[in-house]
Design goal:
It is built from one helix and eight strands. The chain has about 200 residues and is mainly beta.
């Protein structure tokens, strides 16, 4: 009886292999594979300005004429999982303030959105972010809260990008995010390298 069960299992596996192979070659609207994992790294620059109001993160209140702000350089590491014409993913970031009141920022977020054309992505993201300010001294604590954002990535196919799950390539990325319940405004832009 065991030999019959094993033989049936092998037969079922052999018959289902062609069906799985057909699933693997399914394509998204832009002609690339519909499913896979798309790791990436990014370098971005931008600015963040915080409002002067009390907030749940506990950032000390400052005068309206002297708000907390600064320029940032940010590194990002993440991955996308394309699901046909849409995608989900996750990323982590670390940012260093290069001028102004911000010393460091770091956090993680989930991304979700849709694919557009050969190599475009439109997305929303939700995560958690920590921020530390130079302005409050060397022993300043990290302030943390939820972060939200929207953004886009574009990259012409002729510079090597062959769709989201294709070979390595470069995209331009721009996004806007906020800390907490709209207690900051953070526009960022940079280059993303996909593998």
């Amino acid at each position: 009886m065991k030999k019959i069960a094993i033989a049936l299992a092998f037969a079922a596996a052999a018959l289902s292999a062609p069906a799985m192979a057909q699933t693997d070659v399914a394509t998204a609207p832009d002609g690339t594979r519909a499913f896979g994992i798309d790791p990436y790294v990014a370098v971005m620059g931008g600015w963040e300005g915080f409002d002067s109001e009390r907030n749940p993160a506990g950032i000390p209140q400052v005068s309206r004429n002297d708000k907390l702000n600064g320029s940032l350089v940010q590194g990002v590491v993440g991955f996308n999982v394309p699901l046909g014409p849409v995608f989900v993913g996750a990323e982590g970031n670390v940012a260093k303030g290069v001028s102004g009141d911000i010393d460091w920022e770091y956090g993680a977020a989930g991304r979700f959105g849709f694919r557009a054309g050969e190599s475009g992505l439109f997305y929303g993201k939700v995560g958690y972010q920590w921020v530390n300010f130079d302005r409050f001294g060397n022993d300043s604590r990290d302030y943390d809260d939820v972060t939200y954002g929207i953004g886009l990535e574009v990259g012409p196919k002729d510079i090597g990008l062959q769709g989201v799950t294709g070979n390595a390539g470069i995209r331009f990325r721009a996004e806007v995010s906020t800390f907490g319940s709209a207690h900051s405004f953070k526009p960022m832009a940079g280059l993303v390298a996909h593998f």
